[in-house]
Amino acid sequence: MLLLNYKKNSIKFFIFSVVVCALFTSSTHVKANTLFDRFRYNFDKVQAHVGLASHKVLLRMRWSSVALAKSRFLSKIGWADKNYSSFEDFRMKHSLPKGVLTCNLYHKGNDIRRIINADRMRECICKNKLTHLHVPHKYLVEKKDGFHVYAQKIMSCKQPFPLSLKTVKQLAILSEETGYADYHSGNLFFDEKGDIYFIDTEDRSFGMYGKGWERKIALESLRRSLGWGDFWCQSDALQWLDEKVRTVKPGVSFLPTNIKFDPQDLSFQKVKTYYDSTFGRSGPSAIHYA
Questions:
Q1: Which string of b and e fits 161-183 if b means at least 16 CB within 10 Å?
Q2: pTM of the entire predicted model
């Protein structure tokens, strides 16, 4: 599809160049009685001043599409890059379900790491049986200008009741395991049962300024959010968390580089390597979203 769009734009560019070349020079500059003569006379000049600039713009818009089309072609003839094969598996796994429209989702920019970190968090929650914690699904959607990340919409409500000791313990486990340290009311949503949904999963949400102290910093971030009124919890939960912060040992739990929650049949590192080399660190248009 991307290759077809590139061909269509190339044809439009050629037609545009022909028309401009034909009309660029009047008959006073050259004896040209026909459209073809006028086009032939001024083709080089127009190509230098108009065509070349337009072509560069076109290439900047479509370079990632061409690279993707090339990778897909090599895959069909058996010469696929291993990183590309991992990316294709990842893309298929995170494609939009049938009947789901992007207008019903949150647009989260182009950074594929949001999806990878969400998958890792979800796996951590599953392995540790953190039943009160959830991470919305994120999808990778291909459009004309490249790939975009969309997230499942969560209907948030006010925190229905104080966080219990059980819930705070689950939050502490997640913090220790992943280094999640971006606790505030804009990143955590509640449902009517009091369960918590983690909305933001970009790299900077984990192990902020850690340098080996990610676990402690993540727990301190959780404690501050409870103490400053972002969330309210039972007194016994606060007491338990204070002791946990005081006794926690240094440790690195930086989720964006932690592969222990990755699936065995898919390398997230290969996915990131291919995506970054083809589309750039944050995707084709390098849009950043909070």
A1: ebbebebbbbbbbbbbbbbbbbb
A2: 0.71
